[in-house]
Amino acid sequence: MRVLVVNAGSSTLKYALVGPGGDAEASGVVERIGDGARVTHRAGGGEWTVAGDAADHAGAMERMSEAFAAHGPDLDAAPPDVVGHRVVHGGTRFAGPAVIDDDVVRAIEELVPLAPLHNPPALAAIAATLARFPGAPQVAVFDTSFHLTLPAAAVTYAVPGSWRRAGARRHGAHGISHEDCAARAARMLGDPPGARVVVLHLGNGASACAVRDGASVETSMGLTPLEGLVMGTRPGDLDPGVVPYVRRVLGLDEAAAEDALWHGSGLKGLAGESDFRALSARAEAGDGDATAALDVVVHRLVKYVGAYAAVLGGLDALVFTGGIGEHSAALRARVVGALGLLGLALDDAANAGEGDRVVSSAASLAAVLVLEAREERAIARACLAALG
Length: 388
Ligand code: ADP
What we know:
CATH superfamily of the largest domain: ATPase, nucleotide binding domain
Oligomer: single chain
CATH class of the largest domain: Alpha Beta
Structural class: alpha/beta
Strand content: 15-25%
Radius of gyration: 21 Å
Strand order of the largest sheet: 5-4-3-2-1-6-8-7
Distance between the termini: 12 Å
CATH architecture of the largest domain: 2-Layer Sandwich
Bound molecules: adenosine-5'-diphosphate
CATH topology of the largest domain: Nucleotidyltransferase, domain 5
Order of helices and strands: EEEEEHEEHHEHHHEEEHHHHHEHHHEEH
Largest sheet: 8 strands, mixed
């Protein structure tokens, strides 16, 4: 079975054609959708990057098709057997992957208010692949499903009953990556019983997850993917009083305030740009705003790991994943360096290395791991499981 996995993010579209052995025959990404898009396609050991205009995710799906047509594999000659879609928000409705039909599409549409940046791109990608590969079953794999094991105490906001009855509760996100990383970390540690793992998925969106014995017990995103860690353009934790305050003082309407929370906060709000690598370079060159922004990021991460170790009653492994988690040795060094209380210590040479690995020293009381985010492969596996 070959599974075409489509992972539609807020401004990116990642894809992979996963072969029967679980490895990607081809993969790629359309970046900066709506802002002079760029397409990178990898297949047969080669990699091509071209500018490719994509005003929206439907356009990005066309660029993906063109990349396959130009560089292979030929999806017309050998279409995928299954198409899998990552969908950020499945609410409480989807406890696992769902074979896509009209009902499932409607449910994903109904959940748009909870993930306005993410569910619409997934719907556009689903529409495109239903039209392009009408013979292949299509499966939605949800980022929220893994967190349905969260205890009531962790999902409940202390707000009036009418708000809770209207649906105000915590859902979490990034569950596909958290589940996969926690399982891989436990395997690398020899599957200790009841393994207590904290996963930090740090990309443009970022979240932390506390996992006990393979089940999510706490996570940093909430009703929407706005809560928790500092992200590229989202603030993470915020006193809810901030929003009415700035609306009054600055005279912002609701839409402007909401737009600032989704698109103008986080690293972008603090230092004018959302790209962590660019910001790190600026901080190294002495830029004060970039340095201050990184301080906020590190402080928030240290608070979360400490709190999650407390929730888990100890820590066996701390995992860094996502573009930032995998590639910023400096960030890992700062976070781990501030967590001496937990007895964590890095091996500097391993921290500077590459690939999936343990980066803690022999003296560290818990393992620290760097794992490549492999959401596409996890989605492919979930699709095949869903189809039996
Ligand atoms: P997404 O959430 O869109 O999937 P990714 O997981 O691809 O995001 O992560 C993107 C982030 O990773 C960007 O902020 C980017 O700057 C950062 N990043 C990528 N490579 C590096 C690197 N070598 N050093 C620091 N940050 C990096």
